[in-house]
Amino acid sequence: MSERMARLVDEQLSVGVDTLVPRDELIAKLVNSEKKGVPLRIKLGIDPSAPHLTLGHSVPLRKMRQFQDLGHTGVLIVGDFTRRIGDPTGRASTRVLMSEADIKRNIETYQEQAYKILDPQRTEIRYNSEWLGILKLEDIINLTAKYTVARMLERDDFSKRYAEGRSISVLEFLYPLTQAYDSVAIRADVELGGADQLFNLLVGRDIQREYGQESQVVLTVPLLLGIDGERAMSQTTGNYVGLNESASEIYGKVLSIPDALIQSYFVFLTDINPDTVNDLSPRDAKRMLARELVTMYHSADAAAEAQEEFDRIHIRHERPTEVPQVSLDRSLVKEDGGVWIIDLLQASGLVESRSQAKRLIQQGGVKINDEKASSPELDIPFHPPVMIQVGKRGFTELV
Questions:
Q1: Does residue 311 carry a pLDDT above 70?
Q2: How many CB atoms lie within 10 A of CB 255?
Q3: CA atoms within 13 A on the CB side of 284
Q4: pLDDT digit string (tens) for 195-208?
Q5: I need a labelling partner for 114 at 20 to 30 A (CA). Which of 163, 331, 335, 392 fits?
Q6: What structural domains does the chain harbor?
Q7: What own/partner pairs with CB < 8 Å and gap ≥ 24 does 159-168 have?
Q8: Would you give the distance in Å from CA 309 to the centre of its chain?
Q9: Residues of 194-214 as b/e, b for ≥16 C-beta within 10 angstroms?
Q10: Kindly report the CA angle at 325 between 324 and 326, in degrees rounded to 5?
Q11: Residues near 300 by Cβ (< 8 Å), separated by ≥ 6?
């Protein structure tokens, strides 16, 4: 039995994994689970810093689904309590705290997004405020007594900040401890996470032992580079593809990735063998990847429509089949019938600020009625409808 489980780990569960600590314990847990008929509890924490789950989140979610398909239980923990502390991982300074209202707004659609990948029948979605929110001061003191400052300073970002004399709040030391306590509360057998979370996940192993539990196995996956090809996918940097975005947005964003990302995106985001696209041009490989991802998160019909719409706009240079219309406030129209181009862009809803509008015009990213805007000082004669295009995928008609 153990040989069969070893093959399962080596040929399936550890594929695409950055770190597995320790392999032998995972094999033993799988053997024991099958013998007793009790599924393992596979933990993954989600930080509710933003409203979208992204393709970056999908990498550990897909690994959790592998465990679910083997009969195990996925426990998705939304860190609504720990986000109030803020994860200090990789940060050079103390992280700004989030309000409870902002956290609640971000997590409203998490279940819907997660179930695009996970099996609802084998998933528990939990909020760590359930157990962390009721801890008394004596409980917290007891938790902090189970880990030393010296061990905490082994963490790279803490040790660098300490050596450079930059501040580390005691609050930040609580983050890995409270994340570890999540594993105690739900009795995790395996914890999944990104490669940057390795320290936090290993703290969970130590804290579980301190509470008399068997230590979880730690399994981390590589951080997915965002569509800019430079930084890890993040909503903060804007280089992400959201699981809940429209079919056309997913399709267009995937086609924009650098060629160097094609192989890793096939490996980590799809079940397609990347060797099957070796003979394709980068353009055709990206089109296959984009169709596959839209099919996964929408449908095959949506993928075909997204490809047709993309070709209509960017290859045949035609207008989109459907363009949202926005009414322009008459007070913005000057006596000579013109409207300042910055006011037009703000009215369209395609920009977030005047400064962004000016920057996009200067970069050549704005068209008015199919003509590239040359200056942020222009007044545009307003003869509705006026077609506004920002970037490759943003269209609005002002009426």
A1: yes
A2: 18
A3: 6
A4: 999 999 999 999 99
A5: 392
A6: 2-221 (3.40.50.620), 247-314 (no CATH), 325-398 (3.10.290.10)
A7: 160/92, 161/92, 161/93, 166/92, 166/93, 167/93, 167/94, 168/88, 168/94
A8: 26
A9: bebbbbbbbbbbebbeeeeee
A10: 125
A11: none
pLDDT, one tens digit per residue, over 67-106 is: 999 999 999 999 888 877 766 655 544 555 666 777 777 7
Please provide residue 340's backbone torsions phi and psi, each rounded to the nearest 5 degrees. -60, 135
Show the tokens assigned to 262: 């094609």
Distance of CA 332 to the CA centre of its chain: 39
Q: For residue range 350-376, what is the model confidence (pLDDT) as tens digits?
A: 777 778 877 878 877 778 777 777 777
DSSP 189-238: SEEEEEGGGHHHHHHHHHHHHHTTPPPPEEEEEPPPB-TTSSSB--TTTT
CA distance 300 to 200: 39
Q: What is the pTM of this model?
A: 0.80
Q: Which residue has the tokens 């269209």?
A: 395
Distance CA 188, CA 208 (A): 9
Beta bridge partners of 219: 20, 192
Distance between start and end Cα atoms, the chain: 70
- Name residues whose C-beta falls within 8 Å of residue 163's C-beta, 6 or more positions apart in sequence: none
Residue 108 confidence (pLDDT): 78
* Residue 42, beta-bridge partner list: 74, 190
Strand locations in the chain (E): 19-21, 41-46, 73-78, 123-127, 190-194, 217-221, 325-326, 338-340, 366-368, 371-372, 379-381, 386-390, 394-398
Q: Which amino acid is at 133?
A: G
* Residues 253, 227: Cα–Cα separation, whole Å: 7
CA-closest candidate to residue 54, choices 231, 272, 274, 174 = 231
